[in-house]
Structure formats: C-alpha cells, structure tokens
Batch of 2 targets.
Target 1
Amino acid sequence: MQLEVGEIYEGKVTGITKFGAFVSFEGGRTGMVHISEVAPVFVNEIKDFVTEGQVVKVKVLSVSEEGKVSLSIKKALPEDQQRKPASRRPEGGERGNARRGQGRPPRSPRPAPQPSPGRPGDFEWQSRRNDSGSFEDMMSRFKQTSDEKMSDLKRSTDTRRGGYSRRGPK
C-alpha cells in the first residue's frame, strides 16, 4: 500500500509509547503519531486518548527518505474539531485557585520599558530592539556584541594572570 502525504487513512494502533502511538495499515506499512498530533488539546498520557488495537483515522503528514511515516490523528478530524477548545478558566479570567476564591486578578497591560543607553546592563543589541529588524538580525547583533565583550574579558584576565593566584602553590 502506497501512503500519500495529505491523504487520510484508517489504521490500527499497534503500540503506544510515552512519545507517540504506532499505527499499522493494510500491506504492512507502519507510521507514528507523535504525542502532539494525538488530540487538539494538551495530551499528558496517550493512553487517555487511544488504546492498542483501536482503529483510528490518521492523516499522513510526511514520509521521510528512510521510509518513516509521520501521522496525525487531530489533523484527520473535521475542520471544526481541529481547533483547541475554549479556555476552561472561570469567568472573569481568574487564575490559580479560583474555586477557593483565591484567584489572581487579570493583569493590566504595562508599557514596554524604554532602553536607556546609560543604564548598566543595557547592551547595543537591546537598544535596537524596537527596530523593524528580524529575529535573525537581532541575534546576529547579539552574537557580535557578545563576542566583542568576551574577547575584551579574555584580554583583561590574561594581563592579570601574571602575579596572583587564588589556588596557591601546588
């Protein structure tokens, strides 16, 4: 049986692990459903959603060059069931122990702190964080600044090594 990416098939769950479930198809092909692809909600225990021997509908996500088949149960569901259900928080958005009346009030949005170049701890890459640059640009600036600071630090420690040692004589 040839499995095609994007198609939905029925298969039988043949094994369950901590990280996923194995599903086999007619013709002997087997694929794996990763734990994140079992249901549209957070899955802590796969056994809460599938059992060995159960027949499930799965969508083929990919087939690697080695022949490994990646499957999804949640993407084989009808469109309206694929989304995560609404939050189960009590009304008012309270968190924590809301049942005991100890929930925290909702957070009020705070304005983002403005960088000040003279403040200790602010670096060049941080002062440009409001630019429209991409994440990669920001990481590149951070790496460059970090490399410069590390080389300065190494130079300063190399000059101090000549006289004093914390370890003492051996």
Target 2
Amino acid sequence: MTLSITQRRRFSAQGHALNPIVIIGKAGLTKSVLEELDRGLFSHELIKIKVHLGDRDTRKSMLDTICQELNAVPIQQIGKTFVIYRPRPEDIDQKKARTIKTRQQKREPRRTKRSYQN
C-alpha cells in the first residue's frame, strides 16, 4: 500500500499528538508485542510506538519487520519513535456505522422537569 505525500503529512500531524501504545524494550520484537500492535492498529488505525534500543540500524530493521508482518505503512520515524498506519477493513466500518444509526434512531426525546409536573 502506498500513500500520497499529503496523506503522509496529515497522518504525521495526527501522530504527533498521540501517546505511544506499545513500548518495545530490550527483549525486542516478540510475538506478544506484534499481537498488541495488531490490536492497536485494528482499533485506532494510526499508532505510535516507542523503542528503547540504542542501535539505529536495529530500529530501522524493526520498523520494516513490523510493517511487513502487520501489512502497515510507516508514516514517520523520529529517533526512537515510530508512527505507523493501517486502514481498517471496510466491513467493520460498515458495521460500526450501522450500530451508530440504530442507536440514534432508538433514542426517545428527553423529558424535562416541567413535563413531569403537568
């Protein structure tokens, strides 16, 4: 998947305000870390990752591995912080939209204090 420059800039600006979802320590990239990253991408689409490894080449290869394993796109790498993006599957967005519409349709009008006094 490729993103245009304007999309990357927009996601980069959005990612600036995010807090890291996952912090990768000296154990490195494990199966449980990948599962947590997958859950984060599934629910948020755009996530920030903090890595506590000293070597620049190791961090670069880790970012490439994460993006290949999770079918994500790297948005930004600044020092020890990564921002990655993966769009949600369309069927989930449609289900979410349906549930929001049904909730809005089922709401009853609010009653005020005066309506109880009559």
